[in-house]
């Protein structure tokens, strides 16, 4: 499947309509020549409305405080290819929070996207996205490790959402020590 075909396939995908109980709205962004592939769990409800990934408080923290890049660099399709374990907002779970991304989505789309993009590094955001690649490894250890996917450097990040308070409280070392390594890797990959 070539890249254009793949993009059209994702955009028109409605596989989970019945499961969600509403029409799915697939979200992804970027070109096949993007320097960085960024993979997160699934779009939030607000991102599902705008179809613009990380256009929320968590996204602002990610690009301003962690990557330290401008909005223009973040939303340059030759810089970032942004995708998710589940490409569509999955709805609310009965006990609160969003439902988990449907496993079918990564199998059908994500792994094909990873083959199509010629990135330099990977950034994986959040536990559920990390489990796709490092199933048996403990999440917090992954955040502080230099990992590889497809032979290329991979950095694992906690979710930057303002709701993710507990993890940051328990791991102050992330902001003190790890964020600088992420910033450096992003700047090097983008050549800025
Ligand atoms: S979550 Fe993935 S598989 Fe399900 S409808 Fe959206 S794009 Fe298709």
Structure description:
- The protein is α/β, with parallel strands linked by helices.
- It is built from ten helices and five strands; from the N terminus they run H-H-E-H-H-H-E-H-E-H-H-E-E-H-H.
- It has a five-stranded mixed β-sheet, with helices on both faces.
- Strand 4 and strand 5 form a beta hairpin.
- The mean pLDDT is 96.
- The chain binds iron/sulfur cluster (SF4).
Q: What is this structure, in a nutshell?
A:
By secondary structure, the chain is of the alpha/beta class.
Q: Mean pLDDT across all residues, rounded?
A: 96
Strand order of the largest sheet: 2-1-3-5-4
| Helical fraction | 40-55%
Distance between the termini: 33 Å
The small-molecule ligands in this entry are:
iron/sulfur cluster
Largest sheet: 5 strands, mixed
Cα-atom radius of gyration:
16 Å
H/E topology pattern = HHEHHHEHEHHEEHH
H/I helix tally: 10
The geometry reads as globular
Beta strands, count: 5
How much of the sequence lies in strands comes to: 5-15%
Category from helices, strands and their pairing: alpha/beta
Topology:
Elements: H1 3-11, H2 17-20, E1 36-40, H3 45-50, H4 57-67, H5 71-74, E2 80-84, H6 103-116, E3 121-125, H7 127-133, H8 139-143, E4 147-149, E5 152-157, H9 165-170, H10 173-190
Parallel strand pairs: 1-2, 1-3, 3-5
Antiparallel strand pairs: 4-5
């Amino acid at each position: 499947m070539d890249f254009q075909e793949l993009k059209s396939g994702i955009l028109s995908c409605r596989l989970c309509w019945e499961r969600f109980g509403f029409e799915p709205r697939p979200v992804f962004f970027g070109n096949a020549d993007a320097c960085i592939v960024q993979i997160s769990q699934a779009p939030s409800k607000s991102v599902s409305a705008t179809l613009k990934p990380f256009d929320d408080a968590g996204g602002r923290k990610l690009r301003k405080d962690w990557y330290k890049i401008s909005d223009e660099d973040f939303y340059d399709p030759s810089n970032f290819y942004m995708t998710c374990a589940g490409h569509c907002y999955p709805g609310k779970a009965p006990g609160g929070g969003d439902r988990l991304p449907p496993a079918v989505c990564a199998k059908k789309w994500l792994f094909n996207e990873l083959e199509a993009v010629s990135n330099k590094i990977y950034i994986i955001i959040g536990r559920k996205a990390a489990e796709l690649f490092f199933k048996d490894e403990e999440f917090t250890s992954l955040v502080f490790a230099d990992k590889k996917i497809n032979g290329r450097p991979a950095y694992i990040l906690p979710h930057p959402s303002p709701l993710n308070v507990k993890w940051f409280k328990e791991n102050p070392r992330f902001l003190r020590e790890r964020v600088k390594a992420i910033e450096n890797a992003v700047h090097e990959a983008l050549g800025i």
